[in-house]
Amino acid sequence: MLKTSHRISLALLSLCLLLVLPSVVHAQFDASTLLRAQQNGQNTGLYGNNPFDQSENEGENPEGEQQDSTRERKIRKPLESYFFGDSIRALNNFRWHVSRDYNRVNVGTLDTTLTDYRIDYPFYREDVGDIAQGALGQTSLPLNYFRRPQFFDFGFASPYYAYTYNMENVDFYNTKKPIIRMSYEESGQKRFREENFNIMHAQNISPSTGFNIDYKARGTRGQYVWSRTKNHNLAVAFNHTGKRYSVHAAYYNNHIEQQENGGVVGVWALRDTTFEMPSGIPMKLSEAEAENTYRNNAFFVTQSYAIPLQRVTDRDFSLADLSTVYVGHSFEYSSWSKIYTDNNVPYTDERDHRDEQGNFVSAEHNYYDNWFINPTQTRDSIYERVISNRIFVQAQPWDRNGVVGTIDAGVGLDLHTYSQFELDDYLSGHYTKVKKTSYFAYGSVNGKIKKYVDWGANIKFYPSGYRGGDINIGAHLALTGYLRGHPLILEGRLSMDRRSPNYWQENLFSNHYIWSTPLNKENETRFEVKFSVPDFAFEVGGWQGVVSDKIYYGADSNVAQHAGSVSLTSVYARKDFRLGGLHLDNRVLLQWSTDQEVVPVPLLSAFLSYYYEFWVVRDVLRLQIGLDGRYNTRYYAPGYNPALSVYYNQREVEVGNYPYMDAFVMAKWKRMRIFLKYQHVNKGLFGNGEYFSAAGYPLNPGMFKIGISWGFYD
């Protein structure tokens, strides 16, 4: 037995030596070759300098002694993904989002500059901003009709679009070194304070593999009575973008709690000087203790594998330049719930109307006209879940940036579940559940002609199922020319949509609103054209849209559908002037709607930012001092309905013609950014005193804010 075991051991040892010896000899040969190349001053990296190359002897051997040629130098492969071009790979850090349907990513850089950092409300960062309910963490709706969210899975949460995570806005990162970035902003007295806390950690395990965690906590304790808001958002993401295989996976959670005060009892309460503190201004639902709670849990994973149609060699840095076919699968799970509560307590308007002598007469009102389920209190609960699967194929006929760069095709299946409380549920003890199934197919083609032309077209069609007959067709074209090295870009986009109403627009049973009415599909055609000169901070664009059978929420907050067509036109211009350290940034939007009762928009909206920027200490401390101003003309701005969590087209009061201004000082010291701001600096100084954005909901009064952001790179 022992002799037999010895023979087996010797045989195994001999086999190991036979396997290992060639590798050792090859390693010695490579190491000696590498050493000779280093002594001759040659670049030894297969693809140039590799920032991830970490030799154990780097920085040692100061005397110039000859290194041991038997030690193999460890070379880590660089980022080889076909998703990223050379200019992106050269960045120390960058981030991107994944596409829901296609095997593509949208790349962006990490913002560590002073640009827009003092704008702490996220819905104010795009063009001229939003119609806002008031404070940080609360609802908003873009002033620009063509930026308003569409195809939002859970429509009742769409007013929080600027805060919530979804599959296409979860960040993924590639970092040369681990990053931790923290920021904190606060304002106002402790009992009325607004707080904004963000923390992000991103780290790469290898050049192609990384993970990150993003957490945001934003909200207010309430400048006005019963307006406390908590908005918490978490995303945990993992990515691997290898030469052939890529995977993106993430879990995200959105949790929102908002006390709903229903807005001010009357414009007079905002103007009246008897209320020294905003918390004393009477609100319609403050005694009813109305509140909304939203919960969203979601997970997605999308992965693809590349099958090259040409021979791949070690010299091929990535597959972007080779004929390749990619096959992939995408899975997404998302569940949303909303609970709305209130009590039946009327509010008093002390200046409801005047009597014959001209004296004010007070009157009591109920915020809601109907109490269908319970006459004393409300607890409406609704739930929605979507499980989506997609299988896709992407063909790359020549190279990814060729005249025909990629051809995409895919099929998908969406499983919808809707749940709400109805009268029959009193007997059964279970909520009513409705299940729907959607089938769809989609495709696209994209290409480039060098750096001058970028074009593409796409189509998505639902042949049967819940959304049977829905179709989306789109196309885009971008032309780039150069004048003295400066790019001039002309872009055009066209889209045609036929879409079904969402489930809740046709079916709702709640304490205050009930409807069960089939609606027609909406049809909308949009055309967009934009001309920009990025190097001179100039941009001008226009949108033209025609929508028929438009679904909206009418003056009574009930769902309505317009039996006809509405034409919408928007013209947007941006120009940032610079005179030495003086910056004059201007954004202006003009809009026209042929039916303001269906789609109300202000004629003019503007955001102006004028500031002076300079070095206090060269390359160490940079400072900005300036003013931000927002303005729109008067119009019947949408109101906000707490029970439905929707913006509706009220026709009682016009809003606007009030400049809302902030004064700020902003600094960047090495990796730290700081701002000091007095929000609404013009309160009581000039303007008509009606500082509303949404009808009935006053914006925040004057208050001081401080913020700090710090990045750590280890």
Quick overview of this protein structure:
By secondary structure, the protein is mostly beta strands. The chain is built from five helices and 37 strands.
Mean pLDDT, rounded to whole units?
88
Query: Given this structure, which CATH class is correct?
Result: Mainly Beta
Record field, number of beta strands = 37
Q: End-to-end span in angstroms?
A: 57 Å
Task: Specify the number of helices.
Answer: 5
Strand content: over 45%
Structure commentary:
The chain is mainly beta and about 725 residues long. The chain has a single domain, classed as Maltoporin, Chain A, CATH 2.40.170. Helix content is about 10%, strand content about 50%. The strands form 8 sheets. It has a 22-stranded antiparallel β-barrel. Strands 2-1-5 form a 3-stranded antiparallel sheet, with no helix packed on it. It has a two-stranded antiparallel sheet with strand order 3-4. β8 and β9 form a beta hairpin. The chain is globular. It starts with a helix and ends with a strand.
Task: Give a quick set of tags describing it.
22-stranded antiparallel beta barrel; disordered N terminus; three-stranded antiparallel beta sheet; Maltoporin, Chain A; mainly beta; 49% strand; 37 strands
Write the layout of secondary structure elements.
Blueprint: H1 2-39, H2 86-89, E1 93-98, E2 105-108, E3 130-132, E4 140-142, E5 172-175, E6 179-187, E7 194-206, E8 209-220, E9 229-241, E10 245-260, H3 267-271, E11 290-308, E12 324-343, E13 347-354, E14 360-365, E15 377-396, E16 406-420, H4 425-428, E17 432-449, E18 453-461, E19 471-483, E20 486-499, H5 503-506, E21 507-509, E22 514-516, E23 522-533, E24 538-548, E25 551-553, E26 559-561, E27 565-579, E28 582-593, E29 604-617, E30 621-632, E31 639-641, E32 646-648, E33 660-669, E34 672-679, E35 692-694, E36 697-698, E37 703-713
Antiparallel strand pairs: 1-2, 1-5, 3-4, 6-7, 6-37, 7-8, 8-9, 9-10, 10-11, 11-12, 12-15, 13-14, 15-16, 16-17, 17-18, 18-19, 19-20, 20-23, 21-22, 23-24, 24-27, 25-26, 27-28, 28-29, 29-30, 30-33, 31-32, 33-34, 34-37, 35-36
